[in-house]
Amino acid sequence: MAQVTGVGGIFIKSHDPRSLGIWYREHLGVAYKEGEGAGFSWKDDPKADEGMSVFNVLSQDTTYFQPSTAPFMINFRVDDLDGLLAKLSSEGVQIDPKREDADYGRFAWIYDPDGNKIELWQPL
């Protein structure tokens, strides 16, 4: 099934945390529970490399997060980028037209209802 399979750990602010948490559950398959958030277990990651999370600090003047004005961006590991993008498109989720292929996977970007840019990564 086209869905998120992992993330290192990201915490975000929202004017409506409950609705935003439900949005992540309904559209991306994140196992969000109100008051608890969501957790991903490495043993559940279907990739042979047993998963990976990356943390990086970028310059304050980076344009990588644009058009989002948030001081963060979430990178979600996904199992089927094309399938997930098709699903999200049919659900009316805003999808950035940009795509990127790299030595270590394929990338696409979407936006949640608060305008936060989300990076989707399908490892090779």
Features:
2 helices, 2,3-Dihydroxybiphenyl 1,2-Dioxygenase, domain 1, five-stranded mixed sheet, 124 residues, 18% helix, alpha+beta
Structure description:
There is one protein chain. Helices cover 18% and strands 24% of the residues. The model has no long low-confidence stretch (mean pLDDT 83). It has a single domain (4-122), classed as 2,3-Dihydroxybiphenyl 1,2-Dioxygenase, domain 1 (Roll), CATH 3.10.180. It has a 5-stranded mixed sheet, covered by helices on one side. The protein is α+β, with helices and mostly antiparallel strands and 124 residues long.
Reconstruct the topology from this structure:
Blueprint: E1 4-6, H1 17-28, E2 74-78, H2 81-90, E3 94-102, E4 105-111, E5 117-122
Parallel strand pairs: 2-5
Antiparallel strand pairs: 1-2, 3-4, 4-5
Helix content: 10-25%
Oligomer: single chain
CATH class: Alpha Beta
Query: Which stretches are poorly predicted, pLDDT < 50 over at least 5 residues?
Result: none
C-alpha Rg (nearest Å): 14 Å
Give the structure's gist in a few sentences.
This protein is of the alpha+beta class and 124 residues long. 18% of the residues lie in helices and 24% in strands. The chain contains 2 helices and 5 strands, in the order βαβαβββ.
